[in-house]
Write a structure and sequence with these properties.
single chain; mainly alpha; three-stranded mixed β-sheet; two-stranded antiparallel sheet; 24 helices; 64% helix; elongated; chloride channel; membrane; chloride; ion transport
Amino acid sequence: MFSRSDITKLMQRWPHFEDGVTNDIAILIGIFTGLTIVAYNICLKYTEDLFWSNSEITSSYFVILIPAIGGLLVGIIVFLSGDMRRCNVPEVIEGTALHGGRIRIRDAFREVGLSIISIATGGSVGKEAPGILAGSGIGSMFAKALKAPDHRYRTLIGCGAAGGIAAAFNAPLAGVVFVVEVILGELETRTFIPIVISAVFATLVANLIFEVKPIQISYYGFVDPIGESILYLILGTLCGITSVLLIRTLFIVHDGFSKLPVHSVFKPAIGGLFVGLIGYFYPQIRGIGYDVIADVLVNSFTIQLLLVLLVLKILAFSFTIGSGGAGGSIVPSMFAGAMLGGAYGTIVHSIFPTSTAAAGAYALVGMGATLAGTARAPLTAVLILFEITRDYNIILPLMFACVVSNSISNSLHEESMFTEVLKRRGFTIRRGKEVNIMEAMFVRDNMRTNVHTISDEDTAKDLLDIMQSSRHAGFPVLDGNKKLCGIVTLEDMREKVNYGELDTRISQIATHDVISAYPDETLDVVLKRFAMRDVGRLPVVSRDDDKSLLGIITRSDIVKSYNKEIVTHVQEKEIRK
């Protein structure tokens, strides 16, 4: 039998052997991902029955508290696990772009479990992101067990992510394209084959063997897709605007909860309470919402109800995720698009009853177009809807609306639902790669914490002595309480101290209008501040107390860190070759 080290040596000597092993592993990843999706659906069903099977409870005011109970359970589990960091699709993107494909496997599977609780208790989220996380976690486990290099790590995570989407929607092509558009950003021949294999086997296991069914959509007759192109252009524009509204509402709510003076354990419960209140009056917004989408597609709702559900779904989704709940954004985006498309289609069909399709057709196109706008993945959106419907007539209007929505959304808001999270951490990732190295480097990792300081009661002579002994040209100034009150430089000495006036106090020399940096800022932000203010050093202070000195960062620190990071990137590229 071959040992793991023997297999590693063979893969290094014969690349074709490596390709064969990767393909075999892709089969296993697809099978395990499919089985995981099956197990996920079973667990979700039983958990939902646990909370909603009692008709006496669900018909009373207590129904408002069920999402709050789910949120509280999520908060408690996260707190008790001892690690408040969360893992979701943005973390998978970050891992593949910046960390050689490494993700936190334990956190990924924890998030899968948390999503069951959120959805089962009425959280207004989708189950596709947990599928992506489960698949990525399985791929990462195989890669870690084989001690795979970075390029194979990325490939195996891509296999898992593709399998997760494929099994969730019975859409293997969409799973593959999702990995290209969202996770990896590119696809080479050597990575394409195993990712396709994984998506196919995940679909076979989940949907053909165990009959896990996504949303059921009937056939819709498109009267004149070409003649109605101007109508689909307008719908695509509306979906693009709605996509931006969805993204911005989510992060406004998220920012509000992050500033809320409440322990993090209770924040998901507060968000759940809001969802419960909305769901009491409009139960359609609770949970995933496949059945509601199906009703919209057969024209079961009025325009007023469709527009109300559109607004409330955006709010309910934002409160669920923004407060710390778990789940995905793909189905909520499709839900919002169905409501918008249904309302728009009803209006259009009432004006042009003989030359336009029924409202359900516009709702179907709206689903894909809104998903394209939020995820910035138009081809994935087209393929998901096409593979669900198996109707080629949908392709032209769907492609047109998705492309328009993607363009409008991108022009109004640069980041997608996923990359907005990374942008807020200082990462600008395009096509699976970091665009600006400086945006991925933080002050806290490059500042000096062993800082030479001087008291405001000291004199110019003391400052000269310190400058001569330390060879630094500037120092933070502290008051009697050891709080930052200014900064003094050699330039200040030249401008404010005349010859022989060495007894002048530092408080009279120092610059008291201090420009500072924060430890969680990225180096590109700080570098711009250096250029705008024409200074050579910045004290680093706490966000909670801008007088609390944590360290200092200089221009030379940034230049050295940048050069070192460039060398590291070049070496990594050479290794991957």
